[in-house]
């Protein structure tokens, strides 16, 4: 959660380009900008990931999807929450379409979604990274929260002149309210990536970071900072209690301090090679090689 801007838009293996050249960037589009074929092409592999078996078995993973949930990463299109918030009520956003989206706003008495491609998927991951009984995918849309992701809020963040200030601002309403607007499992610090919308929400945050960087690439392609360990309350909700914050620090690559540097290692749980933040600062780098449309 803390390093959302770096962790969210990870790269599936196909996104790795030939060294030195990002000549054919993958194109990240707003969900509303995709045609039905493109939406279908996105949704079908998501379900497929849930049906193919895990290679790493990380955190008790059974499927590839389990791995991505545990790792909190994937490369996807984005949910242009600012455009959708301005255009229509939350439930009318094209992302909540039963046929060509992630399911409608309908839920049963337990808060389980009842339609769309993820209606019958089940989560078994627990916050302590062990496995438990199957749980349905829950949501509870909240318009008041969605109003907090408005462009006016993002505009306040855009005025920041340092990454640290920008990250703190974007990590406030634009980030948190996106989770609360969807509700259900999206409120769970550890388990929220079970809802595929998590990845489109976080890729949107990455896009907003890139918009901010693009205003001054000379300075902002190398501007990093902020604490490198989540707060105690976040850690106790999202990490096994056997792994206190201090257990990670020696592996961060930040020289042992508590400030995030460009040398910070992003751990990929053996799903992909680890990368440093320096390697993902520029969306045109070999590692990312993407474009926002
Ligand atoms: Cu988040």
UniProtKB/TrEMBL annotation:
Would the keyword Acetylation be found if you checked this record's keyword annotation? no
Which UniProt keywords are present, listed alphabetically?
Answer: Copper, Metal-binding, Signal
Q: Which PROSITE patterns match?
A: PROKAR_LIPOPROTEIN (PS51257)
Q: List, alphabetically, the SUPFAM superfamilies matched.
A: Di-copper centre-containing domain
Tyrosinase copper-binding domain location: 73-214
| Family annotation (InterPro entries) | Di-copper_centre_dom_sf, Tyrosinase/Hemocyanin, Tyrosinase_Cu-bd
Q: Where is the signal peptide?
A: 1-20
Going by the entry's taxonomy, the superkingdom of the source organism is recorded as Eukaryota
Q: What is this protein called?
A: Amino acid transporter
What organism is the protein native to? Apiospora rasikravindrae
């Amino acid at each position: 959660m803390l390093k959302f801007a770096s962790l969210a838009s990870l790269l599936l293996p196909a996104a790795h380009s030939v060294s030195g050249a990002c000549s054919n960037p993958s194109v990240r589009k707003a969900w509303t900008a995709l045609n039905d074929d493109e939406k279908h092409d996105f949704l079908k592999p998501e379900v497929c990931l849930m049906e193919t078996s895990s290679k790493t078995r990380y955190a008790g993973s059974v499927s590839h999807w389990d791995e991505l949930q545990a790792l909190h990463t994937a490369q996807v299109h984005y949910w242009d929450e600012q455009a959708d918030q301005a255009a229509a009520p939350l439930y009318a956003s094209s992302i909540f379409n039963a046929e060509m989206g992630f399911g409608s706003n309908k839920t049963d008495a337990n808060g389980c979604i009842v339609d769309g491609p993820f209606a019958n998927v089940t989560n078994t991951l627990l916050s302590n990274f062990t496995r438990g009984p199957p749980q349905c995918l829950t949501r509870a849309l909240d318009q008041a929260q969605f109003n907090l992701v408005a462009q006016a809020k993002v505009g306040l963040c855009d005025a920041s002149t340092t990454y640290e200030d920008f990250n703190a601002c974007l990590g406030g309403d634009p980030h948190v309210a996106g989770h609360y607007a969807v509700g259900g499992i999206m409120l769970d610090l550890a388990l929220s990536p079970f809802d595929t919308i998590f990845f489109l929400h976080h890729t949107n945050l990455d896009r907003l970071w890139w918009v901010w960087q693009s205003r001054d690439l000379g300075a902002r392609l190398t501007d990093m900072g902020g604490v490198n360990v989540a707060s105690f309350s976040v850690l106790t909700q999202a990490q096994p209690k056997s792994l206190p914050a201090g257990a990670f620090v020696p592996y961060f690559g930040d020289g042992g301090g508590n400030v995030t540097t460009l040398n910070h290692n992003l751990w990929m749980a053996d799903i992909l090679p680890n990368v440093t933040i320096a390697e993902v600062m520029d969306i045109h780098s070999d590692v990312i090689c993407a474009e926002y449309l």
